[in-house]
Amino acid sequence: MKAKQPLRLIVSTGRLLTGLLVASVFAGCSSTGELVSATVATAPQQHIDMALSGDALVVDLQAVSVEPAGQLLDLTPAMQRFAERSVAGRRHQDQKVEALHKALLLPESAGGMNIRYQSAATHSPRDSFRLREANCLGFSLLFVSLARHVGLDAQVNDVTIPPTWNLSDNRVQFMRHVNTRVDLKFSRDDMIIDLDMENYRSYYPQRAIDDNVAIAQFYNNRAMVLPANRDTLATRFVYLQRALSQAPEQSYLWNNMAALYSREGHFELAEALYLRALELNPEDLTAILNLSELYRYTGQHSLHRQLSELASRHRDRNPYYQYLLASELFDDASYELAAVKIETAIRRQPYEKRFYRLAADIYQSLGDESKHRYAISQL
């Protein structure tokens, strides 16, 4: 019996939710990246070129129409008037940022646009404005384009969050998050605008990204939201091809292109694309896991085992993974083991309040009043 097709992990930009965070590597021991680099081969360039051409897929790429990158952030006259009206009478930049944010989110009865969150709604700014819905990336692109029109220095801000994983169509979707960063000219502080400010944490690692990377995320999301079947293959490929042309240094884009080829049975090309992802970022956990699964499926068991072990080490250093284990142990009434896991998580990420909430429950179940009081004091 033929082995089941390997499960593929793909990456898209959705919303801020709880989940697993790839942890930093501790000093004093070999990094996962160094070990991966020593384990895997270099991607053959001829296979990369073949994959990027799309010739092996045997689909009509000319029939696919995508939004031009150079026009993606353009505004309609109605959007320009909305931006100007929203900030009218505000003298200071921080006031303009707040006014524009409120105008987008307030209900129509209060004069706002009532932009609604929709996880799959990676729209262009024009479509987000017209449809009044967006996910975090769509909202960020919309805010950036409107803010720039009224003289604000706004950029999309990439946030390393505890991501969520969704299972759909034999694909595990690893969700990223972005919001908007506005550079206030007369202040040392920047302002952060998020579609979900309640769940945003200022201590999450983050950095402003240039428009090319943000537009690459847009194209990537448009590919990922489509069902993975032959009817959508040409469109998914073209979107990923455009994404890579915008930001070829982003490892997750190579991972997603590889997942497309793996699903179609082009394992040699998929392997080359996963290898390119790991050349760019040897600590890309999704690419490590996907390549390991590909080696298992194609019978390369030694490489499969090596990469699986590296992925496990990488995951075990993850404070959010330790938190997940602690939660499961707590549910099983294994309170002492749960305490060990949650204390490990807290040592590695001492600012995460949800860790202390679980710790308080664990210590209460153990009858440790001193530790219970301390955990409560951190909330």
Question: Total helix count?
Answer: 16
For the sheet with most strands, the description reads: 6 strands, mixed
Known CATH architecture of the domain at 69-163 and 170-224: Roll
Report the CATH topology name of the domain at 69-163 and 170-224. Answer: C8orf32 fold
Shape annotation: flat
Strand content: 5-15%
Average per-residue pLDDT, rounded, comes to 86
Class of the domain at 69-163 and 170-224, according to the CATH hierarchy?
Alpha Beta
What is the SS-derived class?
alpha/beta
Question: What letter string, H or E per element, gives the SSE order?
Answer: EHHHHEHEHEEEEEHHHHHHHHHH
Unreliable stretches covering 5 or more consecutive residues: 15-30
Rg: 23 Å
Number of strands: 8
Proportion of residues in helical segments: 40-55%
**What is the terminal separation in angstroms?**
54 Å
Description of the molecule:
It comes from Gilvimarinus gilvus. Residues 1-27 form the signal peptide. This is Transglutaminase-like domain-containing protein. With 379 residues, the protein is of the alpha/beta class. Among the domains are: 69-163 and 170-224, C8orf32 fold (Roll), CATH 3.10.620; 319-377, Serine Threonine Protein Phosphatase 5, Tetratricopeptide repeat, CATH 1.25.40. Helices cover 51% and strands 11% of the residues. It has helices spanning 32-39, 45-53, 77-86, 93-105, 125-131, 136-149, 211-224, 233-246, 251-263, 267-280, 285-297, 301-316, 319-331, 335-348, 353-366, 369-377, and strands at residues 8-13, 116-117, 133-134, 153-159, 165-168, 171-183, 190-193, 206-208. The longest helix has 16 residues, at 301-316. It is flat, with a radius of gyration of 23 Å. The model is unreliable at 15-30 (pLDDT under 50).
